[in-house]
Amino acid sequence: MQRIGVFVCWCGSNIAATVDVQRVAEELKKEPGVVFSADYQYMCSESGQNLIKDAIKEHALTGVVICSCSPRMHENTFRKAAASVGLNPYMVEIANIREQCSWIHKDKATGTEKAIILGRAAIAKVHLNAPLIAGESPVTKRALVIGGGIAGIQTALDIAEAGFEVDIVEKSPTIGGKMAQLDKTFPTLDCSACILTPKMVEAAQQEKIKIYSYSEIDEVKGFVGNFSVKIRRKARYVKEDICTGCGLCTEKCPQKKVPNEFNMGMDNRRAIYIPFAQAVPKVATIDPNYCTMLKTGKCGVCSKICGVKAIDYTQQDEIVEAKYGAIVVATGFNPISPAKFDEFAYSQSPDVVTSLEYERLMNAAGPTNGTLLRPSDGKHPHTIVFVQCVGSRCDGAEKGKPYCSKVCCMYTAKHAMLTREKYPDTDVYVFYIDVRTPGKNFDEFYRRAVEEYNVHYIKGMVGKVVPENGKLKVQAADLLSNEQLHIDADMVVLATAVEPDPSARSLATKLTASMDTNDFFTEAHPKLRPVESPTAGVFLSGMCQGPKDIPETVSQASAAAAKVIGLLVKDKLVGNPCVAHSDELLCNGCSSCEKVCPYGAITYSDKEFRMPDRTTALRRVAAVNPAVCQGCGACTVACPSGAMDLFGFSNNQIMAEVDAICK
Amino acid sequence: MQVENKEFKPLIVAFCCNWCSYAGADLAGTNRLNYPADVKIIRVPCSCRVNPMFILRAFQRGADGVIICGCHPGDCHYTTGNYYARRRMTALFSMLDYLGIEKGRTRVEWVSAAEGQRFAETMNSFVSTIISLGENKRLEDLRCKTK
Known about the structure:
The complex is a heterodimer of chains A (663) and B (147). Chain A has 663 residues and is α/β, with parallel strands linked by helices. Chain B has helices at 21-30, 52-60, 81-99, 116-133; strands at 12-17, 39-44, 65-70, 106-110. Chain B is built from four helices and four strands, in the order βαβαβαβα. Chain B is of the alpha/beta class.
């Protein structure tokens, strides 16, 4: 028989106002096995905890029931208190008489009666509790960062700075991500490449960082501290360690008509290419969809011209297997395609561009070398209309996204301002639903666009864009003056919504990390744990978690790095002892449990058993790896013979609770 | 509610998963949303931890209704637990219905940690269903009766 102590908390008046705490303590004192019972104003306070500790020592308690707030609140507090005086922390149970009793009932008699029943259930459970000891698992002191944009680079740099090895896996041939495509950054108008490329170089030169470019994640196994990851290094048909990045092949390749994705397809590159001049690693890559040699076997120009013989047409995808202690997801975003929005004539006229395309048109390294020219005829545009919220804040979300993409207001202000600065003869209109400028120096920036640069900001949405005689006829409504506007524009720029990278969904499945309805990764807690995913050991950085600008991305990246460092400095991780275990004598080896386990924690092996007739027999039995098991209990119900049970929530314990409640 | 049912205090057992529904129940408390005291919550790690035996035991011991609450489909903390719960309970509930435990006495609901309101509404509607169904006499084992 356990010796149980019951402690009823008043929680000031939170519990005591609707529950007669003295009576609860008295009634629970009568339960079998209860040798001590007390009530106190604040059990979680230091003196409350001392009361518990003293009672454990004085009455040699083997079990403790605390009738207080939710176990989600103070279970740990009380477990620690018990452990400090030598009682196994898993001998403590909480009866939730605040959130699930005193706060929802107004009548004192009802509340008291329910509190007593909840207390009885907890006592019944504690009778069957067994001391549990948490297992330990080692930590692999290496981190994996998935995605090599500014978020991934910053995270990797910070982790490497602390002295840990980091691998970056980037699916495109170079790191740098979307930020590499930007021209200037708001609100300071820093040149994006000038602040990003030194970081890219630093990442490449940092000894602790290894960059797997042009690679993807194939498989993730394991758990926090002990992930085992298969990385697919896609065949780039160029030997990465030999190629010097001289770029000769990219000039001589006869296949010239390949849309250049770095310039949003507004100009062409060759089939063998280096995405941009400052690419890291600066290594050529052959695009197998366009390379004549790979498609027909006839060409081989790049191989002939390469001085160091780096071209290898027979290269195959290579799988690298590596172990990591922590994984950071930094898969970033993509602007949505405006093709669904027919009213803006994006697919009808090349002069209707997205903001990222406009960014490339303004960029000195872009398709027009930084001169703003209309894509259709190469002439200088005189009237430019910017349309905001294309696909953002859409009701119903059939075509667009329900959320605000956060960065569009500011980059549109930037585009408008830069356009007016470079070409004061242009008329710039911005159509907006709301201008949202929360951020340091953001509103000042927007006001400068309006006041100093005379950008015409008009509240209202563009209804239709019609290409006609080389012009774009824009029909819009001015909501403030309630007028219909007709503007003959030379260019229309669409500030399209951002969405998570399409690869994120399958990655989330591999990581067993959860996503919200918009495919953004969810945080462990939206306010208090914003850079951790609910899956232990998986962290989030940048746009993959939600729309954010560069400074926010960088702060989140560093925050994720700090969390990773906090994990990697530990030599051992203490596991959750509430895991499943199998009774080998009952197990009949049916595999039902193995099939339902989402973590692959259950394995089967043949074991020798002594039979009643003194012979031995081999039997297939299940075993649970306590380091992998997360304690969901799916197997305990699937098991037909009742061999599987869960520590901390055993069949008998829950049955006892049911019995106590139904008494 | 109704006068004739004034005497009847149903006994309802609610199994709530630790990550979503139990937190949702806590939130209902934090927001002071009322639901009847007839509901007693048992915390389980996941809705898939609820063994059909627990439910049979509850009915045998005189429970008038049993409700299982878990994370919304797709949001399970353990990825797939609530799908198993849904399947198992669909099978169990139709079998119980065959045995005379009406479908209204058993329910599976999805309540997230942010849905305190939904938790309270669910409990209110479940309790009123049970009140209209009356006492569970079908599976109750008289030997278990203490009063």
